């Protein structure tokens, strides 16, 4: 496969995974803003997914419709869901010969959906949850279409590498955004509503309840999100999937490029797998997550320079 084609497919997957993660978190935060009397505010998400100055964030944060517009529909915000979907669709257009026509159609439908005035009107006005649900459901349709129509060829491998690398980055960033929840064993913090919404944002609340018999505490939430190999949004799961699909590149790439990429993925996976909850107290968690993020970015650099010819 040509390096530029592999690069385009890889970024298609990253844009779409990023969109799905964003929309899920935004949906849950909107629900929290309506249900929690002491809601903690939109500022963290505006810092993460927006491109506003501190002054602009302070001005917009109290106004939920303005926040939702900037994060979801704003064409001037390079990090908005709209811009991610547009970028994903443009990448798909460039590699139509390497993806199934059903995948292209699902992305094209997603693009037209987020441009539809009725969806924006619903999301910014009368029923934000239903508007966000419509977008999320289209993202789920894309995921299922990839899974059921794409041949398991080299293009599929790069789709999966992009998907799970982006997922690992999103999970690490969401933990960094909420690291204050794990800074103390104080019971009032351990039972904070934010923990529940963090799990909802990662689609992990149901698994948590089943695994820990319903008792919500910071230590157990962190254990699930870092180490549970059965949880699709845990760091250890995403890194395991990265290693799995990397190994499928062995016969499709230069030996030195493959070995370097495999080493970097294995290193990141080892960093997570051989850490312990005892190591994640206070400032140690911040340093750990920064290290994991740095190692994930090393993987992106290796892919870019050795597989996509961007070095």
Automatic annotation (TrEMBL):
Organism superkingdom: Bacteria
Boundaries of every DUF403 domain copy: 1-308
Protein name: Alpha-E domain-containing protein
Protein's organism: Hymenobacter ginkgonis
Pfam families to which the protein is assigned, alphabetical: Alpha-E
């Amino acid at each position: 496969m040509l390096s530029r084609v592999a690069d385009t497919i890889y970024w298609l997957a990253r844009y779409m995974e990023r969109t799905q993660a964003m929309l899920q978190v935004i949906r849950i935060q909107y629900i929290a803003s309506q249900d929690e009397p002491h809601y903690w505010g939109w500022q963290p998400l505006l810092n993460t997914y927006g491109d506003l100055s501190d002054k602009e964030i302070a001005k917009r944060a109290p106004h939920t419709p303005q926040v939702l517009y900037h994060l979801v529909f704003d064409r001037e915000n390079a990090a908005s869901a709209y811009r991610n979907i547009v970028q994903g669709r443009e990448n798909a257009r460039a590699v139509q010969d390497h993806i199934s026509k059903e995948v292209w159609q699902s992305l094209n439908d997603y693009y037209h959906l987020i441009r539809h005035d009725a969806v924006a009107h619903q999301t910014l006005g009368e029923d934000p949850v239903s508007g966000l649900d419509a977008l999320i459901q289209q993202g789920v349709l894309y995921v299922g279409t990839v899974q059921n129509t794409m041949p398991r060829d080299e293009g599929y491998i790069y789709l999966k590498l992009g998907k799970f690398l982006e997922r690992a980055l999103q999970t690490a960033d969401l933990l960094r955004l909420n690291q204050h929840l794990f800074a103390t064993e104080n019971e009032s913090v351990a039972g904070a509503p934010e923990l529940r919404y963090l799990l909802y944002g990662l689609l992990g609340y149901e698994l948590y309840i089943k695994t820990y018999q319903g008792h919500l505490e910071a230590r157990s939430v962190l254990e699930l999100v870092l180490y549970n190999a059965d949880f699709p949004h845990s760091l250890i799961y995403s890194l395991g999937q990265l290693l799995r699909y990397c190994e499928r590149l062995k016969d499709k790439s230069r030996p030195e490029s493959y070995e370097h990429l495999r080493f970097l993925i294995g290193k990141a996976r080892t960093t997570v797998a051989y850490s312990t909850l005892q190591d994640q107290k206070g400032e140690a968690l911040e340093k750990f997550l920064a290290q994991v993020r740095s190692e994930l970015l090393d993987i992106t650099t290796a892919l870019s320079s050795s597989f996509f010819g961007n070095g």
